[in-house]
Give the backbone structure.
Amino acid sequence: MTEKQAPPVAGLLLAAGGGRRLGGRPKALLPHRGRPLVEHAVGVLRTAGLTRVHVVLGARAAAVREQAELGDCVLVENPDWADGMGSSLRAGLDSLAGAGARAALVSLVDQPGIGPEAVARVLAAYEDETSLVSAAYDGVRGHPVLFGAAHWAGIAATATGDQGARAYLKEHQESIRLVECGDVAQPYDIDTEADLGHLE
């Protein structure tokens, strides 16, 4: 795929977490509808219209590669995944540099209540590399988020620990376009044993 043909927005799925509060079960491998959760999350991005998807792996990356069918996704291994989501976001944005993408739509593997409708709404709000778009639930910012390439360096510079892009988004709040998704998605996380009830 030449730079000219590259779709302007790439999907970036953060799936490196080790599931610390789930007894060390990597979230990417949690079963959902008979397949690993990471496969479901990639399917959501594809259904929403993202043809290019980069997946950041970390905890038990070899097992994820083996058990999940991730087709023509670009798999990015984050050796520093235990440092938190910030390192995975940096690794993912890094993998997109020079790939011709003008924006990254970032989603999290542990939010199966967010489906293609919400992703498609955020994607539709993309304008150019200065775009900064976020799904909102009853007016509260959530995932997925879309970062135009003009923001990547700033996000990478401030993404530490489990904060991801939070600090950058707080600083640029007035530039964020919020897209209400509360009517089509539920933004719960699969973090604890109790949350596993959300999986099917």
Q: What stands out?
A: The beta strands are 9-15, 31-32, 35-36, 53-57, 74-77, 103-108, 132-137, 140-148, 177-180.
